[in-house]
Amino acid sequence: MLPIHLIRPIGLKSGMLLGMAIFLTFAGCDRPSPGAAGVDDAMATPTGQRQFITVGTAPAGGAFAPVGNAIASVVDANKGSLNWVVAPQGTKGTQENIRKLDAGEIEFGMANAAISYFATKGEGAWKKPYHVRAVATLAPNVGVFVTTAGSGIRSINDLKGKRVVLGPAGAGFDYFLKPLLEAHGVSYADLTVLNGNYFTASDMIADGKADAAFMGGAVPIPAVTKLCSSQDVVFIKLADDAAQKLKDYPFYFPVPVKAAAYSDLEEDLTGINVGNMHLITHANVDQDVVYNLTKLMYLNRDQVAEKHPAGKALNPKNAIRDTGIPFHDGAIKFYKEIGIWPGE
Length: 344
Description:
Elements: H1 12-27, E1 51-56, H2 64-77, E2 84-89, H3 94-102, E3 108-112, H4 113-121, E4 132-137, E5 142-148, E6 163-165, H5 174-182, E7 192-194, H6 198-206, E8 212-217, H7 222-230, E9 233-236, H8 242-245, E10 252-257, E11 269-274, E12 277-282, H9 287-299, H10 301-307, H11 329-337
Helix pairs in contact: 2-10, 6-7, 9-11
């Protein structure tokens, strides 16, 4: 602030012009999109301080990044008179998003429900319980193992002794892959484990630097589609009893994958959900913030689906699906209002 003796009075004419400029500037800001489902004026605080809302996403190659981008974009476009700026932030994925939420660096994050489950319990590599909360359950994270026709690999057991890409280093894939492999009698020690995101894994297989890879996400997984365009891809079948062996975990369940999903898939395949994609927040995030974002995202879910098919999972049955971690009170408040919360 300038010292008082340096502040000069503004003339009447200048003051009127300044006031008009300020009025015109703010009068045109933050108007809701025509026909969009927005936040009621009574819930908005347009005169309050601008609030920056960040949605942590994930590396390229899977569905987490485009879906997170879609949610942020749609909410920001339909925020109405809320004085918000909603933007995605690229991250390394679920584990980084959970830590950023805990540190108060982001407000929302895309996550894998299996990793969130262990984080809330403080189990595995998590040194303490993390107080993350669900906002909405999104598409199943359909896991598939892929290889090429020339590899000779046809079953999970055939992966023993092979070079297998099991996700980016530090992304936490071991939380859901270790139990899945163990259900087939295979351990990490049986494999030569390689790391990389899905697109990197696709390139490694194409270049002969890897024999197989795990890929997961909403179907169709972009990196799998890419690999099918250049290689003769074989989808490795899971054991028929795999889901039964994993029944003690709340996030695993079989998911049918139609042959039409990928050019090299010759018949319908049973994949396995290795933890739904879901949007999470922290228990300490303000209830009104979570309520408003949940409302804007859900009521404009058709726009999310236009940007990525996984948005179709934002439906009355799936959005409230229990994946093993509690929902935030702000999200529950909205779901109760529209009558889709269990018991309402």
